[in-house]
Amino acid sequence: MSTKIPWVRNPDGSPGEVWNPIIGCTPASPGCDNCWAERLHTQRHEATYTAQLQPPCYKRPFNKVRFREDRLDYPLHWKKPRTIFVNSTSDTFHPDVDSNWLRKMMIGPVHHCQPRFRGVDHKFLFLTKRSKRMVTFFQRYAEWTHGIGWPGDYPHVGLGVTVENQDYRTRLVDLFNIPAAMRFVSIEPQLDWVDIRPWLEHSRLHRPLDWVLLGAESGPNRRPFNTDWARYTRDHCIAAGVPFFYKQGHDEHGKVDHIPLLDGRTWTERPKWFFNPDKEGGAS
What we know:
The protein is α/β, with parallel strands linked by helices and 284 residues long. The protein has helices spanning 36-47, 99-112, 115-118, 131-144, 170-175, 227-240; strands at residues 17-19, 22-23, 66-67, 83-86, 123-128, 157-162, 182-187, 211-215, 244-250, 256-258.
């Protein structure tokens, strides 16, 4: 299913895809308080009680996490290179997601969509707030696959975590415990000042983050946003040479401003990984 999410773009600039074999979620942290996916799902779920025709996936409430195995092979049918956001309406590493579901996703479509198998260079983006479960899963997955199942062995897989304020920077610590071809952070919705400088620097143990996404909260109950928060992170990304993508801010009236200007220009940078996996970093 194509998406209008601006940072999910194909290499040619066309809209990317969302792939949602898992549906449903529950709050993990304050960034979830005004979840757009929960709001949309709940509206459609409640509509089923008024005899309004809705897709079957809305019959159960949003907090009931479930697996849509019928969607599992969707990426295998996409012939042109796609950027694929995995489980945009859930959290892939939610505690209610069965490990067997994850294995089916990884051993099946994700594994077999490598360019060396199909000649089609799909890019899979995983974004989570459950970073510790992500670490645990990939440790076990490497054991199940006899050591070849680390994300770092998959040049077409990018792993990211959401960090909405300073309290959740520990998710970045977890992220850097997984070797991956591309690591990114989403500071959205940004609820307060966030300092990610330690993860923008080279060290003898790891390379820096490959990508930084940032955005204000949207929706009817959106919380305040300070443009200086974006400027602070943007400046440090420039200094570190890390691509910065400023998805949305708030204008002077508090309305959501999509792909806003910041100091006279927009910021929609993407890492070279999207265009050639051999150009960016490595599995460290």
